[in-house]
Amino acid sequence: MELSKIPQIKNTDSGQFFLLSGPCAIEGEEMALRIAEKLVNITDKLRIPYVFKGSFKKANRSRIDSFSGIGDEKALKILQKVSQEFQVPTVTDIHVPEDAALAAEYVDVLQIPAFLVRQTDLVVAAAKTGKTVNLKKGQFMSPESMSHAVKKVTDSGNQQVVLTERGTMFGYQDLVVDYRGIPTMQNYAPVVLDVTHSLQQPNQASGVTGGRPALISTMAKAGIAVGVDGLFMETHYDPANAKSDGANMLQLDLMEDLLTQLVRLREVVQNT
User: Fold this and answer.
1) pLDDT tens sequence across 1-44
2) What sign does the dihedral 181-185-191-197 (CA atoms) show?
3) What's the pLDDT band for 84 if we cut at 50, 70, 90?
4) CA distance 6 to 18
5) What is the pTM of this model?
6) Chain-wide mean pLDDT for the chain?
7) Whole-number Å distance between alpha carbons of 266 and 224
8) Strands 210-211 and 200-201
9) Domains of the chain
10) Which reaction is catalysed here (predicted)?
11) How many C-beta neighbours within 10 Å does residue 115 have?
12) What is the pLDDT of residues 114-151, one digit of tens each?
């Protein structure tokens, strides 16, 4: 993947990691614009290449009454407005092949959720839009097996593919990140570390996924230290009341301090 080929992405000559960040789900226009404005200001200041993230719908839910979205086109139009207002690219998840063409009208990067990354029709549909495709490694898959997912994209005529490490299931209610897998997957495509989802605690008795947000800084620093190409971090100005994944999101007010530390760490790593 060539980072500079993502429309509107800035600071690609800075030597910094790139960042995919935003709320888990689009809850409304005001919240999306508020989060985007803060993140754009921070990443411009630190010269971090940035892509705004927001799911236009949430199909993978623990309970039938869990929040799933505000309406597909309504949410996608909000993502498009974020892109137009702040001149940044956007990324969203897709869940069925029919989502690919729809979402591609509004966003710049299509993301394949970890649970669905072996779904050939979905991966190929995303690839054939010509958009950059972010493949999240299945929690049940080895780093080596992700080479086949990448090949599905490239064999469909699309070289714009990136991989995201988001942890491997450890027992029923925990995830671990095996950092040995990052250089392995970098043989196939640039690699992003999904910091916040790697700290999820799924399969809780309540049906609401838990998390360990106090370890976000630790996880992110470890990723930069081993040389990831990018970071993925979900954030919200009020995680406790977020409608999806609030238990593992970073408080928005903490983002600038953490990214400042990570930028400095990246410079140390590059100079070592």
Assistant:
1) 999 999 999 999 999 999 999 999 999 999 999 999 999 999 99
2) negative
3) very high
4) 12
5) 0.94
6) 93
7) 6
8) antiparallel
9) 15-270 (3.20.20.70)
10) D-arabinose 5-phosphate + phosphoenolpyruvate + H2O = 3-deoxy-alpha-D-manno-2-octulosonate-8-phosphate + phosphate
11) 14
12) 999 999 999 999 999 999 999 999 999 999 999 999 99
In the chain, pLDDT over 70 holds for what percent of residues? 94
Cα atoms in the 13 Å half-sphere on the side-chain side of 115? 10
Residue given tokens 């450890």 in the structure block: 170
- Residues 60, 27 contacting (CB under 8 angstroms): no
Tokens of 221: 């620093």
The pLDDT of residue 243: 84
CA distance linking residue 233 with residue 243, whole number of Å: 16
Token pair belonging to 249: 């999101």
Backbone angles phi, psi at 255, to 5 degrees: -65, -45
Cα(32)–Cα(92) distance, integer angstroms = 13
- CA-wise closest residue to 189 among 228, 227, 150, 131: 150
3-state helix, strand, coil in the chain (%, to 5): 40, 20, 40
If phi > 0 it is left, if psi is from -120 to 50 it is alpha, else beta; for residue 143 that is alpha
Q: How many residues does the chain have?
A: 272
Q: How many helices (H) and strands (E) does the chain have?
A: 8, 13
Could you count the other beta carbons within 10 Å of the beta carbon of residue 64? 7
